[in-house]
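Tokens for chain A. Residues wanted.
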């Protein structure tokens, strides 16, 4: 783990405010407050740029405000921001689209639960300054911060607002391409999926700014995917004395930055039986209360089907600004779980398998901290009476 990572210990919810102007009046009454009731006044939109705007308003009573804003007059597809309790309200709109008309509406709610709603006059953002740029964009701070056996996460920046593409392949010419979303930004990230494990990929980044000028970064850009993690029983073949109980240990190897794991394990219930209701226990790799990770451990059995479901998840790590996922606390090799049971009388061996999907009851799978699937190996096991 690199030193930039910090553990996620909670969620911080930030409220912003909104505004609007219309002829709609307050909907609630007044109890010991302003004789006008709750009214939204002095709504203004100011400091409009190509991507930002400031909206302010006041309320005759102490209230909170909810601002809806979007690019359609009916406000069907909107974003919502909330102001703090008070009489003076301000909201800072960011990440707006240049040269675009925006519509908005404010709803205020006072401490008595009364509400008022106002629709503001639409405002238009300015033409983007980048449209008249005379130089191609500069691509810098390229970094691959997340790699699994089947995916890679690439981050980079540009000095202009740009949108672009990533080309990648095992060798040149680069035969695969993935587009960025249809928006212009200076902060970029892309997750490449469906990659082959334990392979070195070359890639190139192409960025085009709003003046239709293009730059490409290629020099020295490559990353190597990880080997596939392996799920297996350790040992793969467990030999026991006739009539003795067994303890099968489920292990993982070459794990890195897992966020979640599910293992659906099947055996023939006519050949073996679990010891009791506590027959499944988490191993050290999943054990609750560890100092380096936090997880949830669940177990369930279907004795009539001879299936055992074991699930776990780990805490996701973020960088210092709390926005970029860097990985999780699940790295390395270790014991995932222990399953205790016994072979039925007269049985000399019982296969134990990892199942990919069982009629909706679950499946064996690994996911990374983006909840994307991680490719892996699964090695089945065998319990048998020693000869």
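Reply:
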């Amino acid at each position: 783990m690199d030193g930039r990572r910090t553990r996620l210990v909670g969620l911080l919810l930030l409220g912003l405010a909104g505004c609007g102007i219309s002829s709609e009046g307050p909907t609630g009454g007044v109890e010991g407050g302003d004789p006008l009731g709750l009214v939204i006044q002095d709504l203004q939109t100011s400091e409009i740029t190509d991507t930002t705007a400031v909206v302010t308003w006041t309320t005759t009573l102490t209230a909170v405000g909810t601002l809806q804003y979007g690019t359609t007059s009916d406000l069907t597809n909107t974003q919502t921001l909330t102001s703090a309790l008070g009489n003076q309200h301000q909201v800072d709109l960011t990440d707006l689209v240049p040269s675009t008309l925006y519509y908005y509406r404010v709803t205020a709610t006072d401490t008595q639960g009364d509400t008022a709603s106002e629709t503001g006059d639409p405002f238009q953002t300015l033409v983007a300054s980048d449209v008249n740029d005379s130089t191609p964009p500069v691509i810098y701070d390229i970094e691959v911060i997340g790699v699994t056996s089947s995916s890679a996460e690439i981050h980079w920046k540009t000095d202009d607002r740009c949108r672009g593409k990533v080309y990648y392949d095992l060798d040149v010419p680069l035969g695969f391409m993935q587009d960025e979303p249809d928006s212009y930004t200076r902060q970029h990230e892309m997750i490449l999926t469906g990659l082959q494990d334990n392979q070195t990929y070359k890639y190139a980044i192409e960025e085009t700014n709003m003046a239709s000028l293009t730059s490409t970064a290629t020099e020295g850009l490559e990353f190597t995917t990880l080997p596939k993690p392996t799920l297996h029983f350790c040992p793969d073949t467990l030999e026991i004395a006739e009539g003795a109980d067994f303890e099968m240990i489920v292990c993982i190897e070459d794990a890195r930055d897992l966020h979640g794991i599910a293992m659906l394990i099947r055996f023939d219930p006519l050949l073996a039986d679990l010891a009791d209701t506590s027959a499944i226990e988490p191993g050290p790799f999943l054990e609750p209360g560890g100092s380096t990770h936090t997880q949830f451990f669940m177990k369930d059995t279907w004795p009539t089907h001879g299936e055992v479901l074991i699930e776990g998840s780990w805490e996701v790590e973020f960088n210092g600004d709390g926005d970029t996922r860097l990985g999780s606390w699940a790295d390395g090799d270790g014991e995932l779980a222990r399953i205790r049971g016994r072979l039925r009388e007269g049985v000399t061996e019982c296969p134990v398998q990892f199942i990919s999907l069982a009629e909706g009851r679950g499946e064996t799978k690994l996911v990374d901290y983006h909840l994307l699937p991680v490719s892996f190996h699964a090695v089945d096991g065998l319990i048998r009476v020693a000869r």
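The longest strand covers residues 245-267. The chain is about 0% helix and 55% strand.
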